[in-house]
Design a protein that fits this description.
The chain is an alpha/beta fold. It has 18 helices and eight strands. Helix 5 packs parallel to helix 7, helix 8 packs parallel to helix 10 and helix 17 packs antiparallel against helix 18. It is globular. Bound molecules: adenine and zinc ion. Its cofactor is Zn(2+).
């Protein structure tokens, strides 16, 4: 097995991180108090009880029920800024160099918080992360697929200025996957493209849903990558397409176990993806809920795939850099950092 020091020093990129999913239980309660939010009566009363409950999610929906209660304690621009800033500080110490982060404006606008307030809080934290920590980032606005697609279309329109000026770099689709297939959101994605033809597009698919949701996201929404996507391995033709078109899957190992997509990390079809040349990155999804940030995910995968040598890890890291939405200059910087780290630990190769 490669060393933990090597994994830590790799210049890591994260492409599947929900900023609201970084809300740790020990911040949730103080924020609820400060903002005068009454949590539901049946909600755990202490950090320890909440952590225990987080260890028992039955599936995606069970998690989402807690996740949306968590988001309800975020009110002011400063709350959003502090949340994202705490994330960037944490992952800086884990060797993260570039992050493409999701946020769910609809979970805030439906509570009367303007999209500009949410976005500004997150955006200023991203700018601070670049200035103070050297971490580059992009913001991806997700649509909640359990909501009426017409309301999602309205959200795209409300974000018109943020999409056209590039503050929102990408559009994603998250929340309960079944029974909300990608075809419901064709108009939303078309609208986003018409506002800014340069907008990047992605969608959660193939987490709990079938491989068909992955191919339909590619065909109908015209996404250039897929979040999760692990169920793609059940469709041979799709696998060939992902490899040929270099569609990256943003895989979330600890999340897949916590939401019972698989029973352990070794069952995630990472070896199949590698063998089929399907690019993937490793990500933390909602680290405060799933027990680990980016490096914890790398460590766990290394532990469960102990035969992977530095060449395999170098491929994963390279694919993760190349599948990022940063410009060529930044990609080249990160690729040279990768070469330096590999040369430091494996000078004879
Ligand atoms: N929202 C936050 N995390 C999510 C996940 N893993 N799948 C779908 N929606 C989400
Ligand atoms: Zn996710």
């Amino acid at each position: 097995m490669v060393s933990q020091d090597f994994l830590k020093e790799l210049p890591k990129c994260e492409h599947h991180l929900h900023l609201e999913g970084t809300l740790e239980p020990d911040l949730l309660f103080p924020l609820a108090k400060r903002n005068g939010i009454t949590l539901p009566q049946e909600f755990p009363q202490t950090v320890a009880e909440l952590e225990t409950r987080y260890g028992q999610f039955k599936d995606l929906q069970d998690f989402l029920d807690y996740y949306y209660i968590g988001t309800s304690v975020l009110i002011d621009e400063q709350d959003f800024h502090d949340l994202a800033w705490a994330y960037f500080q944490k992952v800086h110490s884990q060797g993260l160099v570039h992050a493409e982060v999701f946020y769910d404006p609809q979970s805030h606008t439906t509570r009367g918080i303007p999209i500009e307030v949410v976005t500004r809080g997150f955006e200023t934290a991203c700018q601070r992360a670049e200035r103070e920590l050297g971490i580059t980032s992009k913001l991806i606005m997700c649509l909640l697929r359990h909501m009426d697609p017409q309301e999602c279309l309205q959200t795209i329109e409300d974000a018109n200025k943020l999409i056209s000026n590039g503050t929102i770099h990408g559009i994603g689709l998250d929340s309960a996957e079944r029974p909300f297939p990608p075809e419901l959101f064709v108009e939303c994605y078309e609208k986003a493209r018409s506002i800014n033809p340069e907008i990047q597009l992605t969608a959660h698919a193939g987490e709990e849903g079938p491989a068909k949701y992955v191919s339909n996201s590619l065909d109908l929404l015209q996404v250039s990558r897929i979040d999760h996507g692990v169920n793609s391995v059940h469709d041979e033709e799709l696998m060939q397409r992902l490899a040929q078109e270099k569609i990256m899957l943003t895989v979330c190992p600890l999340s897949n176990v916590k939401l019972q997509v698989v029973s352990r990390v070794s069952q995630i079809p990472l070896q199949k993806l590698l063998d089929a040349n399907v690019p993937f990155s490793l990500n933390s999804d909602d680290p405060a809920y799933f027990g680990g940030y980016i490096l914890d995910n790398y460590y766990k995968v290394a532990e469960e795939f102990p035969h992977w040598d530095h060449k395999v890890w170098s491929t994963i890291c390279r694919n993760s850099i190349e599948g990022s939405w940063c410009d060529a200059k930044r990609k080249n910087e990160l690729l040279s950092r990768l070469d330096q780290v590999v040369a430091k630990y494996y000078p004879l190769n």
